[in-house]
Amino acid sequence: MNGDPSAPTVAAPLPPARAAGPRPAPAEAPAPPSGPAGPPDRRGFLVKAFGVTALLSAAGSALGLLRDLLLARFFGANQGTDAFLVAWTVPETAAPLLIEDAMAFLMVPAFSLALVLREENPESPDPVRQLVRATLPWLLAALCALSLGAALGAPQLVQLLAPGLPDPGLAVTCTRITALTILPFGLAGYLGSALRAHHNFTAPAGIYVAYNLGILAVLLTCNAIWGVRSAAIGVAVGSLLMAALLVGPFVRRLRGPAAGRAAGPPPGARRGRGPQAGGLVLIPLAILPVAVFTLTRQAQVFVERYLGSGLPPGTISHLNYAAKVSQLAMTAAILICTVTFPLVARALAAGDLVTARDRVEKDLGQATAVVLAGTAFLMACAPSVVALLFQRGAFGPQDTAATAAVIRVYSFGLPAQALIGVMVRPYFSVRPVVRRAGDRRPDDGGRRLLDWYPAAAMLLGLGVTVVVGLLATPGYGALGLAAGNAAGITATAALLLRGLLLRGIAVRTGRVLAGQARLLAAAVGAAAAGALVAGLPGDPLLSTLLGGATVALVFAALGTGFGAAEVRGPVLAAVRALCPPSIADEGKLPHGR
After folding, report:
1. What are phi and psi of 21, to 5 degrees?
2. By CB atoms within 10 Å of each CB, which of 26, 146, 411, 488 scores lowest?
């Protein structure tokens, strides 16, 4: 289901009879009593869904931060934590591949198309159940094989990732433990994608709360007994809790809307080419470009661990703590497109590329506003934030200075990371892992080749990361690695913006870039003002609070003054809420766009 890259205008990815019809996208249509369509008040739905997702994600992030604080307190930054963090590469790789990125890119569009077919043909066998029957058994078998392979190949994996480790045996033990996470991670990603496609965001948003609670429980009770191995065992326990949280809601969704419908395929449904699922034909090869893109993106971490293993002990730990703090801002931005992704996928499944384009442009602006505000805060307050969070126990002032410096360099790449998260979702949704059984359009080689564009863009960005890292690491150490990461991810974001146009989603580039420039100017001014204020008091807590407040106020003022809609609208709405009604009624306040 591709857009035509040669078309001068937006090309619908569905057969002309579907795309040209007057029927609105399902995300806009009122939901029947038992159906999965979007709610009638889309704005209210988005606000509620974002609120629930943000609250639970913030709780998960807070618990994750507490987890990192305990790691720093109990074990500091030394050879032991370096060994554990090398082992943590397994869940760090499995999480984006099997939970948030690749699995979501594949299964949210697939379930969205199945839901569209369910609405169109309420009397036919349920496409959602058929999709589950056709995909879940194969997925579980593949996950078991991957988990076993990672455990058996742990020595070779550690040697490949960090050949300079002085104690590889500890890393091998931890890697064998963390390899157990692959199966529950994959199951959680599959179930979470299905629930999000059904507009159920509560349980998927709570998985990291369960995950980090499992880690914390084991870490707090067993750190003195098992040492850093307790962290690895906690990761395995947390992954099991993550998957268990989603099983109940998934089963209820699968049973409820399809009550009374035929569960099996109609006579002759499996005849012909390829496995079919309730009007859907699976396209297994569509998995490959998505998986390669995600693995190539995660390879940024591999490069850092590989080059960092040859630097002084503790370098990998400094990079890890800096990444965890830096990504809090990026994670908040990604929440926006996590909530809106099912709407974009449903619009694309229904052939409404205009709605999809408008939603993507809004996501790009809103995600950039959030991540640039966070970036300005980190630029201004990184030393006080690290001292406040980590400087206790085995984590000393030198660790604080090294980690804060890395955070500031990392921050240059945060906007690009958020933009990639927004852009790649609709890109892969245009050609999901399933298609309509009656869609007989030719699938030319050019369209198949275009599927690999994000992976190629990420590979080029990875090349930039490697080159910059190799050139800068001898002189600048961890800062050189962080600079390579920021440069590579920024190059990839620029290429992916072009890729959206090639895919047929005609994002208005000039309009998007102009909005980004306004937000960037506001962030630069806010970071400069925040740095001046944060440097005045000596107490880390006071510095963080004063610097953060200054960044927020200056960013809001400059963003409003520069006309950035993503800042101006919320600021004016807040002003109206604080002012007496008579003032707003008299028209003395301007209305935001």
Report:
1. -70, 160
2. 146
| CA-closest candidate to residue 481, choices 406, 370, 372 | 406
Report residue 522's pLDDT band, with 50, 70 and 90 as the boundaries: very high
What is the DSSP code string of 203-235? HHHTHHHHHHHHHHHHHHHHHHHHTTHHHHHHH
110 or 269, greater pLDDT:
110
Residues 249 and 291 placed together within one structural domain of the fold: no
Distance CA 42, CA 442 (A): 35
Q: Which two three-digit tokens encode residue 303?
A: 């490069």
- CB of 115 within 8 A of CB of 203? no
Co-location of 222 and 292 in the same domain: no
Quote the domain boundaries for residue 69.
38-256
Q: Is the domain of 57 the same as that of 132?
A: yes
The whole-model pTM stands at 0.66
* Cross-strand bridge partners of residue 434: 282
Q: What is the pLDDT of residue 440?
A: 54
Q: Do 233 and 310 fall into the same domain?
A: no
Shared domain check, 248 and 303: no
Question: Binning pLDDT at 50, 70 and 90, where does residue 241 land?
Answer: very high
Could you tell me if 316 and 309 are in contact, meaning their C-beta atoms sit under 8 angstroms apart? Answer: yes
- Report d(CA 431, CA 503) in Å as an integer: 9
Distance in angstroms (rounded) separating the CA atoms of residues 487 and 489: 6
User: Could you tell me where the DSSP H helices lie in 391-439?
Assistant: 397-410, 414-429
Q: Which residues have a Cβ under 8 Å from the Cβ of 93 and sit 6 or more positions away?
A: 295, 298, 301
Average pLDDT over residues 539-565: 89
Q: Which of 81, 265, 241 is nearest to 174 (CA)?
A: 81
Of 314, 289, 301, the closest CA to residue 80 belongs to 314
Q: At what angle do helices 509-534 and 540-562 cross, to 10 degrees?
A: 150
Phi then psi dihedrals of residue 434, to 5 deg:
-130, 160
Same domain? 244 vs 302: no
Q: Is 264 inside any structural domain?
A: no
Q: Are 281 and 275 in contact (CB under 8 A)?
A: yes
Please state the φ and ψ torsions of residue 376, each to the nearest 5 degrees: -60, -40
CB 158 within 8 A of CB 71: no
501 shares its domain with 548? yes
**Within a domain: residue 281?**
no
Q: Across-strand partners of 335?
A: none
**What SS3 class is residue 276?**
strand
Whole-number average pLDDT of the chain: 77
The pLDDT value recorded for residue 273 is 40
Tokens of 530: 């925040």
Considering the domain boundaries, does residue 96 fall inside one? yes
298 and 248 within one domain: no
- How many percent of the chain have pLDDT more than 90? 15
Provide Rg for the chain, Cα atoms.
24
62-71, 100-109, 486-495, range with greatest mean pLDDT: 486-495
Range name among 13-22, 179-188, 475-484 with the lowest pLDDT average? 13-22
8 Å CB contact between 451 and 106: no
Q: How many CB atoms lie within 10 A of CB 168?
A: 19
Per the CB < 8 A criterion, the answer to whether 25 and 33 are in contact is: no
Give the sheet arrangement for strand 280-282, strand by strand.
276-277, 280-282, 434-436
Rounded to an integer, the average pLDDT of 309-332 is 78
DSSP-assigned beta bridge partners for residue 282: 434
Structural domain count, the chain: 2
Dist. CA 470–CA 199, nearest whole Å: 45
Q: Is there a domain that residue 279 lies in?
A: no
